[in-house]
Fold each of these.
Amino acid sequence: MQTTPNRRGQMSIFFAVLAALALSACSPTLPRSYVVLVPDADGAVGEVIVSGQKGQQVLKRSGQVAGTDGAAVGLTLGNDQLSAEFGEAKAAQPARPEHFMLYFISGGTRLTTESETLFAEILSRWTSRDQRAVTEVVVIGHTDTVGSAEGNTVLSMQRAQAVVDQLRAAGIKPSALTLESHGEKHPLVPTKDGVPEPRNRRVQVTIR
C-alpha cells in the first residue's frame, strides 16, 4: 500500500530539510589561515594567545583553533585531524635535544658503575636518530670544589676528553663532537670550597 504525505506532512519535511541546511551552513569551518594548539611530545598542553584585527583568543585545549587574525573559530580538531593536517610537518621537525649526566669517582676520570651503564644508553640514543640530519653531541666537563680552581679546570677537561674518546671509539665522528670544560663553575649542588659533592663530579652530554 502506498501512502502520500498530506500538506502538513509535506510542510514538516520541508522545514526539516531547511533546518538541516541551516545547521550545515552554520557549522564552523577552518579558515584559510589558522593557529591550532597541539600537545608536546610528552602530552602536556600549554597555552597560546592569538591576537589580531578580529580579536584575541586564548587556546588552552589540545586541537583548539583560532584564526591568525584573532577570530574565534569554534572548532576543536581531534587526533586524527591533527595527524592529517600536520603529520608531515611534525615528521620533518628535528628531534628534541636529549641530556645525560655521567658521574665520576673523586679525583679522576673513571666513571661510576651507574654511569658506565648510562653510557650505553647514550650510544643507543645516538644511533636511533636520523643520521641524515645534522646532529651533534656536546660534552661539558665539571668538577666539585675539592682542589684548586686551576686544577679542577684541567680535571674537568680530562673528564670531558675521556668521554669524547669513548664516543669516538664507538663510531661517532669527531666533526659531530663539541668539547667544553667548566671546572668547578656551574655546580649542580652549590657548596663551599673544598667540599666533595658526587653530583658535581660530572660530564653533561647533550645530543641535539
Note: The beta strands are 34-36, 48-52, 55-59, 64-67, 72-76, 98-103, 137-141, 177-181, 202-207.
Amino acid sequence: MWFDLTLEARDGSRHAVCYNPHTSECEGLPLPVNPGTFAQVARVAKDKPLGKSRAPRMLKIQLGLSCNYACSYCSQAFQIADATVSKLADVEHFLTQLDGWIIDAPEKIELWGGEPFLYWAKIKQLVPALAARFPTAAFSIITNGSLLDREKLDFIAAHDVAITISHDGPGQHLRGPDPFDDPDKR
C-alpha cells in the first residue's frame, strides 16, 4: 500500500512523495536515500506471545486505578469500576509471588496509580519490603502531589524515594487544587 504525501519545508516549498509503510520505501524525496534491509522480527500473536523478561531493569507497580482528580484527558479516568478495587492483602500476595516472576533485582522500582498516595497503606508495606529484597534498587513515585503531607514526606525522605509531580502548569486549575500553592506540600 502506497501513500501520497505532500511535505512542506521551512521555506514553504512543497515536495510530493509516495511512501509504503510496509517496506519503508519512499519515492520522490528531494534528497537521496539509501534504503536498508530491516532484520526480521518475530511474529507475535495471541497464541504465540513474545514474553516478558524475568530480569527487568525497571519494575513498574500499579497500585490501583483510583484517583482523587477527574481529569477529562486522563487515559485512566474512565476505567471499569471493578478495576479500581484494591485490597491491602494484595501486597502480601504480590510479595509472596514476586520471586516466581523475576529472578534479578531491578535497577528501579516505580509505583503508579491512578493516584498512588490513595494507596498509602500499600506504599508503607511495599517500599520497605522491596528495599530489603532489592537494596540497590532506586524507588520513584509519580503523583499529582495533592495528598502529600508531613508523614508521607518523612517516609519518602527516609526511604530515598524520588517523587515526580504530574502538574499541568498554567492549566492546573482545570485539573484540581495546585499542590504547589500549599507551603506544606511545596
Note: The chain has two domains: 1-37, 58-181.
